[in-house]
Amino acid sequence: MEHNYFKQALSDFAGDAAYGGALRHFADLGYTVDQMIKELDFPVSRERAGAVVWQHYLARGIILLEEPPAEPVIEKISYVREYGKYGKVHYRRVVERKELPMKNYYPCEFGKKRYQDEALFLHELEVLAEGDREYILGLPWPLQRVYHAADERMTRIMETLNDTF
């Protein structure tokens, strides 16, 4: 078990060094996972690329796992270890304020819908433009409600899906 954990950690580290920065850059430019894979000169699995992009969106606040707060600011609390005059350890509380990129978020349950009935889910997505459908299918949506920033792409996706149902 430890061996597999170490192998996975090493693989994640090597993958991030090799292509993580490129995938995050492409994500910031608005590429879908499939478009990113086509742009890279080396092979990356769709699942791996989707996971990197998903983590990037979580870190930037584009996707939230919990309902967005009323204020567009999130406080991240961490503790820093410091040493006193005689080597005594003290912990200092550090509050980092992070503004969310958007004020409005759409609740999304794509993971739950896909898990319940994948054929129906894929049929529902047929009304979307190809790039928007690729965007939804390229991300590893969890089996819970998440919140996606109401950017231009997600607004277009949600309006198209709501118009058809």
Describe the structure.
The protein is α+β, with helices and mostly antiparallel strands. Helices cover 53% and strands 19% of the residues. The strands form two sheets. The protein has a three-stranded antiparallel sheet. Strands 2-3 form a two-stranded antiparallel sheet. Strand 2 and strand 3 (89-99) form a beta hairpin. It is globular and about 70 Å long. 18% of the residues are buried. The mean pLDDT is 86.
Labels describing this entry:
165 residues; globular; single chain; alpha+beta; two-stranded antiparallel sheet; three-stranded antiparallel beta sheet
Low-confidence stretches: none
Largest sheet properties: 3 strands, antiparallel
- Rg (C-alpha, Å): 19 Å
Mean pLDDT across every amino acid position: 86
**If strands are numbered along the chain, what order do they take across the biggest sheet?**
1-5-4
Assembly of the depicted chains: single chain
Strand content: 15-25%
Question: Care to count the β-strands?
Answer: 5
Categorize the overall geometry.
Answer: globular
Overall SS class: alpha+beta
What's the helix-strand series? HHHEEEEHHHEH
Q: What gap, in angstroms, lies between the N and C termini?
A: 47 Å
Report helical residue fraction. 40-55%
The count of helical stretches stands at: 7
